[in-house]
Amino acid sequence: MLSGCASQQTAQDDRSPEDPWEGFNRGVFAFNEVIDRYALKPAAQGYDAVTPEPVQIGVGNFFSNLGEIRTALNSVLQGKPGNAGVASGRFVINTVVGVGGLLDHATAMGLTVDGEDFGQTLGVWGLDSGPYLVLPLLGPSTVRDTAGLPVDMYTYPLTYVEDDPTRYGLTFLRVVDTRAGFLEQEELIRGDRYSFIRDSYLQRRRYEVSDGETGDDPFASDDFDFSDDDFDDVDLDDAYAD
């Protein structure tokens, strides 16, 4: 739900040239808010209340580790062999030494990576982002990022778990864990909630596609401890809570 927070939001007209479908988007946004308010957020609050912090960290590490495969593939497609190598190394180290990814030994070893997805790859290839788009359940996106979702889905290992109850259970856990991580940060949203989330998402995506060439990361502060994988690994980019 919250793809970042613009730390210095100036007063501006809510209308945006990047959001020509605002009427439709606000309707979908309202639907998503109802789902979040009455289902997802209560589940996340319960999870946060009963799950010890070390367990929550382990769960987050596990799902982030699965996302390294997607990052490695998209890094190759973007012509970033160094980032692809680091992502691959992180996956091997954390899977083997980190008990299936529950422990993040790679970061402790100084191996950090820029998360990549196929929407970013399309941007690097020169495809314009297109209009802003709010997807049912999936939340903030653009036409370009939406086009990249199928590739992101098929490059995420959880998709290939054949046992349906196991796959659904893990997906639900991933969504709830991600939503729980935003419980405190969402309190910092100011003004119109729809506009704030839209502008934050678009600013974040511009930063990611340009690899920071547009300036400093607007969300890198002590108040917002988000890793790139937090955004890359949620499919419901991807959870509306990505």
Automatic annotation (TrEMBL):
Presence of the UniProt keyword Lipoprotein in the record: yes
Domain of life where this protein originates: Bacteria
Polar residues bias spans: 1-11
Region (Disordered): 1-22, 209-242
Bias (Acidic residues): 210-242
Keyword annotations: Lipoprotein, Signal
GO biological process, any: intermembrane phospholipid transfer
Organism: Aidingimonas halophila
Source lineage: Bacteria, Pseudomonadati, Pseudomonadota, Gammaproteobacteria, Oceanospirillales
Claim: Ligase is one of the keywords in the record: no
GO CC terms of this entry: membrane
Protein name: Phospholipid-binding lipoprotein MlaA
Protein family: Belongs to the MlaA family.
